[in-house]
Design a protein that fits this description.
The protein has 208 residues and is an all-alpha fold. Helix content is 78%, strand content 0%. It is built from nine helices and no strands. Helix 3 crosses helix 8 (158-186). The chain is globular and about 60 Å long.
Length: 208
């Protein structure tokens, strides 16, 4: 779905100075860099994927430790997260066309607020809303990570940049699982207690 719904971004859409510098690099035979915009976004995305794990990878723990329901409720939350992500992927092209970088800002701000809410008021309602909203945000941000990369790097470096973003996603989520497992041990063994840390990570990513 990400591949199907990424907008068709042409070099003519880029700022004139970026297009010119890209051309100069190609003519001179020099390898073009990815640019500071890409690397700033790369770090921001890495933090987002790490923070995402605190909820999605430990959703069954969150439900169990707060006595919110049985395995059926856990399955419902997981499926709602996936459904939210699917909807975001389907409408991402329209969202990105109208909002551009605001998609990234909202994708970082909304889950940070949701983490604080789930931390202070864990309930079935917060779990369901969190599942839908975070799934939607994740789907939008995941698609954005590829669309924005195509916007901000020279065309000749798109393939390499896309590979880095995929690597970023995989490593970020893997390290996030280890990070929040360790934080659970520090904070009395509850995943809910780590939610302020997840919100703080998203706040840093938002500032970047």
């Amino acid at each position: 779905l990400t591949i199907l719904f990424i907008p068709n971004i042409k070099p003519s859409d880029r700022p004139q100075d970026e297009t010119a510098s890209a051309g100069e690099g190609a003519e001179g035979g020099k390898k073009e860099g990815l640019g500071s915009r890409f690397w700033i976004f790369f770090v921001s995305a890495f933090l987002f994927f790490m923070a995402y794990c605190a909820f999605f990878s430990f959703i069954s723990v969150f439900v169990a430790e707060n006595n919110l329901g049985d395995t059926a409720f856990t399955g419902l939350c997981s499926s709602l997260t996936t459904a939210g992500s699917l909807v975001a992927s389907l409408i991402f092209g329209a969202m990105f066309g109208k909002m551009r970088r605001k998609v990234s800002l909202l994708s970082l701000f909304i889950p940070a607020v949701l983490y604080i809410w789930a931390w202070t008021s864990p309930s079935q309602a917060s779990a369901i809303i969190f599942s839908i909203a975070y799934g939607f945000v994740y789907g939008g941000f995941f698609s954005l990570s590829y669309a924005y990369t195509a916007c901000c790097v020279p065309p000749s470096r798109n393939g390499f940049a896309m590979g880095l973003i995929t690597f970023n996603y995989s490593v970020g989520i893997t390290l996030g699982i280890y990070l929040f497992t360790a934080l659970m041990g520090v904070d009395g063994g509850t995943i809910t207690g780590t939610y302020p840390y997840a919100a703080a990570i998203l706040a840093v990513s938002l500032i970047i």
